[in-house]
């Protein structure tokens, strides 16, 4: 089963630079399998590695490369400059049954084939001429390189985490309620960091599939419905999921058996679901069910640490300086018995008219985060989304006024004069309460906002609060010491941002959009911000610079309804959605987008020299004739170049199975011609040819990346493209490489 290809064709560096899914670095040391497992275990322990993406530089025979995959939460990519040794490494890895999540490739450039901040662990057996600066470039913040010295000892290097990036561990960034990241690297998107699944969420006209999303210490944690997208009527599959924030590797998942029904109508929330998940250091605080108590979970493993006794029906949670504050509902949850009345969007109006905050008492509770010991509990009205703290006191809106209590005892400290709000608080809405620099800001959704002194509760100023967001809570952001609001709900709104002095309410700055474009209604979620940019979503995602008074628009990307986007880790995360707005222009999937960075290798013009390769089976002559297009063949996707999906073959009315071949993995559609059935195992980077008569494997070919589309058989050759940037051409009978045209990277024969 030769691993050669007739020819390959690729489009330059751009594709190879995105091949983070396949990478580990190099292949040199010849280790037996048993010894490789011991060496791998020692290296992983030395590095403190807990999952993610490994690059193995100098991968030798592939034994250590394969052994480094200690669990399904690990992806490994081996790199070598040895063309002949690459085929051996690939065969060894394939024999372990791990090929795909573990793979190997040829390194032909002085740069590693990764974008910045992608690799969790770099195992350097042979530097292959790669400088230290390049190793540091590709490591994630706090990523580790273990390097073998001349004496065979392994030394460890840890890339420091820059203070320019920030976490986002609550729905509103932190327990203060101010949805602003202190991240100087987040900016208008210019690069793709990674893309994750699913490509779409479940349904446009029902509840958003993502309920909550936070990030802490280089990881993402979220609650999402991974149920079938074939029909929203099929049962949900709610999961608590952990991913690496810099390369998207799925680290672990946990089932959530009971959650708010996925048939809740479009744009109707419930917004409070986003406040049921908080990450602090290596612990997650989450409700693992709609009526569940708060649970502490080990963020590294996903295993339960303990539950907080007495916290059942937990609706919201914040964490501050070792203390958990939560809102629990002692009554039946308002939506526990919800069932859709209609199979259409019309349910949205029914919910808005009849289902809303019941204004019944809740219990504010405090616990020690480390032990789960309850400190205090106080019953009373608590407006949704308003529980906040600044590390000194705890604040919330009690349905009529803003109240402050002592964080250690829960004792009442002060209550303001009445602070107005909407008369009906629907589930897709909630008042906003923000604490910043000794000032409490409050907006109740009735066109007004007020500021109070955090020490005394004395009112400092009031002002109008323009409509923002759409079918969502409204915006209230403090950036650069100014309180920012803008009318952004409708495309007809002016979009003029007003920045007020935090303590006086005086208008310090005001500016309109400086771009002429089409504005739609704001996406169905709140705006967020960094210290440098306001980030509304009037059509897609806009980066608004208060300093430059400039709007940078991106109609081609947006977040999912209910939650929105997440700016942190120097990146912008846009979760999956299934929105019908602008479907012809938007990115799909779970996207992590990076700003422009001078260290990122950019695609260069591809020279034709060396781009086309002739393999050992190359011949300029094609087969004179074959049965590719006859009634017995199906040589390409959907049967023909016209993609008709039609064959003139006559089928026996009594069809019976002729043979069965179990290949495993994720398969493309097969093609059939010249006595060969050819199919690609996409997740294993492998093309397999079977004997048409009996299903026996005739040959296999391992490419340098995923093969996501069915091959084509034409005049004795098999042609297909790979995510490694090459188009391959193989002899259809032997699988030998005839030749190829590709990018700047060469594959082994």
User: Taking all residues together, what is the mean pLDDT?
Assistant: 90
Radius of gyration: 29 Å
Q: How many helical stretches?
A: 6
Strand content: 25-35%
Distance between the termini: 12 Å
Order of strands across the main sheet: 3-2-1-4-5-6
- Principal-axes geometry comes out as globular
How helix-rich are the residues, as a percent range? under 10%
Structural category is: mainly beta
Low-confidence stretches: 1-29, 743-749
Question: What is the number of strand segments?
Answer: 48
The largest pleated sheet is described as: 6 strands, mixed
Question: What this model shows, in words?
Answer:
The chain has 749 residues and is mainly beta. 7% of the residues lie in helices and 33% in strands. The strands form twelve sheets. A six-stranded mixed sheet has the order 3-2-1-4-5-6. A five-stranded antiparallel sheet has the order 40-48-47-46-45, with no helix packed on it. It starts with 12 loop residues before the first helix and ends in an 8-residue tail after the last strand. Mean pLDDT is 90; it is low at 1-29 and 743-749.
């Amino acid at each position: 089963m030769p691993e050669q290809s007739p020819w390959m064709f690729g489009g330059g560096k751009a594709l190879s630079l995105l091949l983070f899914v396949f990478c580990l670095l190099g292949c040199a040391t010849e280790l037996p399998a048993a010894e490789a497992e011991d060496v791998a275990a020692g290296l992983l322990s030395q590095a403190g590695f807990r999952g993610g993406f490994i690059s193995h530089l100098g991968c030798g025979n592939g034994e250590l490369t394969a052994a480094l995959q200690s669990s399904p939460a690990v992806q490994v990519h081996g790199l070598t400059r040895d063309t002949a040794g690459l085929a051996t490494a690939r065969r060894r890895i394939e024999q372990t049954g791990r090929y795909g999540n573990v793979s190997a490739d040829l390194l032909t450039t002085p740069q590693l084939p990764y974008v910045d901040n992608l690799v969790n662990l770099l195992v350097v057996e042979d530097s292959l001429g790669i400088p230290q600066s390049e190793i540091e470039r590709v490591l994630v913040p706090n990523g580790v390189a273990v390097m073998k010295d001349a004496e065979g000892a392994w030394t460890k290097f840890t890339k420091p985490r820059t203070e320019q990036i920030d976490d986002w561990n609550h729905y509103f960034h932190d327990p203060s309620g101010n949805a602003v990241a202190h991240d100087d690297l987040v900016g208008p998107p210019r690069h793709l960091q990674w893309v994750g699944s699913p490509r779409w969420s479940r349904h446009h006209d029902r509840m958003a599939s993502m309920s909550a999303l936070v990030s802490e210490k280089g990881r993402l944690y979220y609650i999402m419905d991974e149920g079938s997208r074939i029909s929203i009527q099929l049962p949900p599959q709610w999961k608590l999921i952990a991913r690496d924030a810099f390369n998207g590797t799925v680290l672990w998942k946990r089932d959530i058996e009971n959650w708010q029904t996925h048939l809740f109508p479009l744009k109707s929330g419930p917004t409070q679901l986003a406040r049921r998940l908080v990450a602090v250091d290596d612990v997650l605080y989450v409700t693992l069910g709609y009526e569940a108590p708060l649970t502490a979970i080990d963020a590294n493993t996903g295993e339960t640490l303990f539950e907080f006794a007495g916290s059942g029906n937990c609706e919201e949670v914040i964490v501050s300086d070792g203390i958990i504050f939560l809102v629990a509902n002692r009554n039946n949850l308002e939506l526990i018995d919800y069932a859709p009345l209609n199979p259409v969007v019309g349910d949205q109006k029914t919910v808005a008219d009849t289902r809303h905050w019941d204004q019944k008492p809740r219990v504010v509770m405090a616990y020690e985060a480390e032990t789960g010991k309850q400190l205090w509990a106080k019953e009373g009205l608590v407006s949704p989304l308003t529980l906040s703290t600044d590390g000194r006191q705890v604040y919330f809106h009690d349905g009529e006024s803003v109240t402050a209590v002592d964080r250690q005892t829960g004792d009442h400290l002060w209550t303001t004069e009445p602070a107005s709000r909407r008369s009906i608080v629907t589930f897709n809405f909630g008042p906003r309460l923000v604490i910043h620099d000794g000032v409490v800001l409050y907006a109740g959704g009735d066109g007004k906002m007020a500021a109070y002194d955090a020490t005394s509760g004395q009112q400092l100023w009031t002002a109008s609060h323009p409509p923002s967001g759409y079918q969502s809570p409204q915006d209230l952001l403090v950036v650069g010491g100014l309180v920012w609001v803008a009318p952004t709900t409708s495309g007809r709104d002016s979009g003029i941002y007003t920045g007020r002095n935090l303590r006086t309410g005086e208008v310090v700055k005001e500016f309109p959009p400086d771009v002429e474009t089409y504005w739609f209604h704001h996406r169905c979620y709140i705006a967020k911000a960094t210290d440098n940019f306001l980030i509304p979503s009037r059509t897609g995602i806009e980066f608004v610079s208060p300093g430059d008074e400039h709007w940078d628009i991106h109609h081609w990307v947006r977040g999912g309804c209910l939650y929105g986007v997440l700016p942190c880790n120097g990146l912008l995360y846009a979760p999956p959605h299934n929105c019908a707005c602008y479907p012809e222009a938007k990115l799909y999937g779970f996207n992590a987008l990076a700003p422009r960075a001078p260290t990122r290798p950019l695609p260069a013009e591809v020279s034709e020299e060396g781009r086309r390769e002739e393999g050992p089976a190359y011949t300029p002559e094609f087969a004179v004739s074959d049965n590719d297009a006859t009634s017995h063949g199906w040589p390409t996707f959907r049967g023909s170049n016209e993609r008709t999906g039609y064959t003139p073959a006559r089928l026996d009315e009594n069809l019976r199975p002729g043979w069965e071949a179990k290949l495993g993995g994720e398969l493309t559609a097969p093609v059939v011609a010249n006595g060969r059935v050819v199919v690609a195992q996409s997740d294993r980077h492998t093309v397999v040819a079977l004997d048409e008569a009996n299903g026996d494997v005739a040959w296999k070919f391992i490419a340098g990346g995923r093969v996501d589309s069915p091959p084509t058989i034409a005049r004795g050759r098999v042609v297909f493209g790979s995510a490694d940037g090459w188009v391959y051409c193989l002899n259809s009978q032997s699988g030998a490489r005839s030749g190829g045209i590709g990018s700047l990277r060469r594959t082994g024969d």
